[in-house]
Design a protein that fits this description.
Blueprint lengths: L1 E2 L1 H22 L26 H16 L5 H11 L5 H11 L6 H4 L15 H6 L4 H12 L6 H15 L6 H10 L6 H14 L4 H11 L31 H14 L4 H10 L4 H16 L6 H4 L24 H16 L4 E2 L7 E3 L15 E2 L6 E2 L4 H5 L5 E5 L3 E6 L5 E2 L5 E9 L6 E9 L5 E2 L4 E7 L5 E9 L7 E10 L5 E10 L2
Parallel strand pairs: 8-15
Antiparallel strand pairs: 1-3, 2-3, 4-5, 6-7, 7-9, 9-13, 10-12, 10-14, 11-13, 14-15
């Protein structure tokens, strides 16, 4: 089906307006483990909406898209994160620290990051949904690239879930159908999926909201609502039977609380947001993500004036460093919407965007069963050109180890597997694996050369240069393992250059492998 320009614009505007509304509603109750019984804003809004990081983080990544288009990836987003994001708290700070040490995504989101399963990236899903309306596979893939900058595991699954669901919401409005879409893109046995299914079960069984809160929490217990509170000072009323989870394990239950608010609010905009807020924990995130989802479903033209009027069109930012230039910060929801509308045709390309449609461009969207993740499908349709795309799907990327990095070059893609760690130990051999997959559409025999450039004090137990056959049938590739000995290395940081080239072609690519010595 095709999404016409005016409908698309209305839904993008609804997304950002709904995001703004939900964040403002939930902000005063953030980080509190309690039942919240309110039916409207509680802040003084006479000076406009207060700033909230749930919206403005995406403005930085929009700036990256405006420069790099569909080529944006985790490495580029990481550079923008370091340059323009102010906060250094929890997962944001550890992600920055890892990036500064030379750990590339997904390792930057995983290593020593106690909050990698928290809520800081599922709140960034809307940008990818708005840029990929009715194309949840694309939205999920970019959400994965976004999430692994500073999260891993359940944190990333939360963003992929929301991005796929919100993308589908441009063409589908039934909550059950949309939840099915979102769940199809994440591992069925992950904690996010388990908590979301618990929310759906509670609603279907007619469980009361307070009991649903307890059941959802205990399906994947988090700690967001007890940060900075001694356990013996935690209010007992309403918290009976609430288990104590691992620090930072917050995304699963909060994603599910947003889902539960949607279902318990019967899809009514205000009732659903207030129900999500009632569950407590990370309320500005849950309400903002749900508000954005409902805003896409309804469109800005159908959002209740009661909720939109107090905020007007204004955006207030909190986390963007504007001192050095480089990021244009919109002042209104309308301005943010128009910027997305301008970049979407370049982002999607002519295969998905009809620039000659009456009244503006139209977007080709999937519908029905086509919105679901394609289980068992080995390839993606190419965005640009015919044939098949050998890149991994969003679901396949989610299943990768956080120590596998993916490096795309014009002629091939290189996968470097550090085999479970970003470190090495004195006196122990250190192995890693390199896999090369050709990007060419011609089915012809090729040869790939993999060459290691090692620092002084490091040697390979086998050859430092290999010439391997690259049989270019679909999904075929060349793979080699290398084992390093770093006993003579003086530095605590091992930096090895992996050079990959195809024989008979000018294309080549270099990947820097960084490992740190364990104490």
């Amino acid at each position: 089906m095709k999404l016409d320009f005016q409908t698309y614009r209305d839904k993008v505007m609804g997304c950002w307006a709904g995001k703004n509304i939900g964040g403002v509603l939930g902000a005063p109750f953030e980080g509190k483990r309690q039942l919240n019984e309110v039916d409207f804003y509680t802040q003084d809004l006479t000076m406009g909406p207060p700033p909230n990081d749930d919206l403005d983080l995406q403005i930085v990544f929009l700036a990256a898209v405006e420069r790099y288009g569909r080529n944006v990836n985790a490495s580029i987003l990481g550079e923008y994160w370091l340059s323009y994001i102010i906060p250094n708290w929890v997962e944001y700070g550890q992600g920055k620290a890892n990036l500064r040490c030379g750990l590339t995504p997904p390792m930057s989101g995983y290593v020593d990051n106690e909050y990698r399963n928290s809520c800081g990236c599922f709140i960034r899903s809307e940008l990818w949904a708005c840029l990929c309306p009715g194309q949840p596979e694309l939205a999920a893939r970019y959400a994965y690239e976004d999430g692994i900058v500073d999260h891993a595991g359940e944190g990333v699954y939360g963003e992929v879930f929301f991005a796929a669901m919100q993308s589908a919401a441009f063409v589908e409005s039934d909550p059950q159908a949309l939840l099915r879409v979102g769940l199809s893109y994440i591992p069925a046995d992950c904690a996010v999926a388990r908590a979301v299914r618990q929310a759906m079960d509670c609603h279907r069984q007619g469980v009361s909201l307070p009991e649903a809160r307890r059941r959802i929490h205990n399906a994947a217990p988090g700690t967001f609502g007890i940060q900075g509170v001694a356990l013996d000072e935690l209010p007992q009323a309403g918290n009976e039977g609430m288990e104590i989870g691992a620090p930072g394990f917050d995304a699963p239950e909060n994603v599910a609380f947003a889902v539960a608010g949607w279902l318990y609010g019967q899809g009514d905009f205000g009732q659903s947001l207030c129900a999500a807020n009632a569950f407590g924990e990370d309320t500005d995130c849950t309400c903002a993500s749900l508000g954005a989802t409902l805003g896409i479903v309804l469109g800005a033209s159908r959002l209740p004036e009661r909720w939109t009027a107090p905020l007007g069109d204004q955006i207030a930012t909190l986390c963007i460093d504007k001192t050095s230039g480089g990021v244009w910060v919109p002042k209104t929801v309308t301005e943010l919407t128009e910027r997305v509308l301008r970049v979407t045709p370049l982002f999607l390309g002519v295969e998905l965007c009809d620039l000659l449609a009456p009244g503006g461009y139209a977007i080709l969207c999937r519908e029905g069963e086509g919105l679901l993740a394609r289980e068992g499908d080995r390839y993606l349709p190419r965005i640009n050109g015919g044939g098949k795309d050998q890149r991994l799907t969003a679901a396949q990327k989610c299943a990768l180890s956080p120590f596998v990095t993916i490096h795309e070059f014009p002629a091939f893609t290189v996968y470097v597997d550090r085999m479970g760690s970003a470190s090495f130990r004195q006196g122990q051999p250190r192995s890693f694996r390199v896999r090369v997959v050709s990007s060419h559409t011609q089915c012809r025999q090729e040869w790939v050369r993999i060459r290691l450039f090692l620092p002084k004090g490091v040697c390979a137990d086998s050859a430092e240069e290999l010439l391997l056959p690259l049989n270019n049938l679909w999904k075929a590739g060349a793979e080699a393992s290398f084992t390093l000995n770093a006993d003579e290395l003086a530095s605590a940081k091992l930096e090895c250059l992996v050079d990959v080239s195809l024989e008979g072609r000018h294309s080549n690519g270099q990947v820097k492998l960084v490992l740190y010595r364990e104490a």
